[in-house]
Amino acid sequence: MHPSDTAGPGGTASAATSTDHAIDASGITKDYGKGDVLHGIDYRVPTGTVSALLGPNGAGKTTLIEILEGHRGRTSGRLSVLGLDPGDRRDFARLRTRMSVVLQQTVLEPGLSVRDILRRHASYHPDPVGLDEILDQVDLTAKRSALVKSLSGGQLRRLDLALALTGRPELLFLDEPTTGLDPVSRRRIRALVSGLRDSGTTVVLTSHDLAEVQELADRVDVIRDGAFLATGTPDELVRSSSAFTVVEFADPGVAADRLPDGANLVNGRVRIHTDDQDTVVRDVQAWAEREKATISGLTIVPPTLDDAYLAMLDAGAQKTTSGKAE
Would residue 4 count as lying in a domain? Predict the structure, then answer.
């Protein structure tokens, strides 16, 4: 801890105000009595961005999120969320009026209508979004009189978001927003999240759908064993990972032992994993000339964030000693 830090509640360091970052955390630790779950986490989320937090079960992700939300205390470290310290009771009370949390599963009264539940929730806020406006924002205008129990999964998820957005939050924690939804509902939710960012709302996203993360997130932080493995934009993480590009083409009809070096035949396609696609393409073309084989349907499939994430976890596991990432 820096000598200039002042002690906050529970022996933690006080928050530092930041307007450029909705979240500014430094040296966050959490010890449940059996060793640290979080090991000096530094975590910054620029204002008005979508930031994804990824990690396997038991990585410390949930603990970190709960500390940021103010639902769990930290053991040490400095933390500012919208310029306030979630670990301070007075700051937490103020923070609750400026942020919202959308859990993966929310229980709503099944016998209430969409209109009634939104009106009741609006009464908790000093300057709520109008009913017509919020219904339009989440595309539920046609369901304003419908009972909660009659809504589809996608409609329920959009109602969750409507409730979270009624108070005009500056910061939104969003957990698995499209899990179990159909493609149309997923597209609507993703468009809504993009719109929130465009309007200046900061979103912290947790999701196991890495295609979704790659589409929505401005930055990604990968946590494992209570420490960050990687931080960057989705493209930066893909480029810096050990994930391979796949060069593939249609089965040319030659014997398996005559395929190019490193090639595998999968579902009628020849696949070669490589970190040097240009060299492989040249080698394949030279091989085709030698074998008098016809190359058709040649495609180059770059690695995705999903590929990069799995490669990072694998590399992190290989560097882990006694449960801590080095």
Answer: no
> Same domain, yes or no, for 48 and 179?
yes
Give the pLDDT score at 242.
87
Other CB atoms within a 10 A radius of the CB of residue 217 amount to 26
| 38 and 133 both lie in a single domain | yes
Domain edge (last residue) among 218, 233, 248: 233
pLDDT band at 10 (very low <50, low <70, confident <90, very high): very low
Cβ count near 109 (within 10 Å) = 12
Cβ(273)–Cβ(262) below 8 Å: yes
For residue 127, give the DSSP letter: S
Under 8 Å between Cβ of 99 and 174? no
Q: At which residue do the structure tokens 């999240």 appear?
A: 193
Bridge partners for 21 per DSSP? 46
How big is the CA angle at 190 (ends 116 and 134), to the nearest 5 degrees? 25
For 63-74, what is each residue's pLDDT tens digit?
999 999 999 999
Domain, as residue range, for 307: 239-323
Residue 276 pLDDT > 60:
yes
Q: What are phi and psi of 24, to 5 degrees?
A: -140, 100
Among 186, 202, 233, the domain boundary falls at 233
CB atoms within 10 A of CB 118: 23
Same domain, 251 and 120: no
Q: What is the dihedral of CA 184, 153, 204, 53, to 10 degrees?
A: -90
User: Across residues 181-193, what is the average pLDDT?
Assistant: 91
pTM summary value: 0.83
Name the token pair of 282. Answer: 């040249």
In this structure, which amino acid lies at residue 51?
S
